[in-house]
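help with this.
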Amino acid sequence: MFADFLKRLIQPEPAQLPDTDARLALCALLVRLARTDGHYAASEIEWIDAIIEARYGLSVEQAHELRRHAEVLENEAPDTVRFTRAIKDAVPYEDRLSVIEALWQIALADGARDAEEDAMLRMVSNLLGVSDTDSARARQRVSPRP
């Protein structure tokens, strides 16, 4: 289903992604992070949907549809290293930074820091070209305040 999209994304020099493709690719990263611990919880799905709705101004139905497509893409996508490097080359830095914020929201959705999710976020941040400092600031911006 997404073979042509993935083929374009992992070319040696991918072109900047159209908005709809960038949304899909970046949402697939949210799904990949949520699935990292082997438990894709309903609460994580709800958070992904809420993030998608708010980030892209979508209706509930549109957000569900985008997430469902992102779940399929995440299953079909190559390893995280190639996938994120391709996104780095095709998506502007500001958009990548806001994705890190969204990823932290998913990682912190259950109120606990998970070692697998932390490791995945460190790797994804690095592969997306987002510095550790910017990633930490992104986490602080989305962390619930006591």
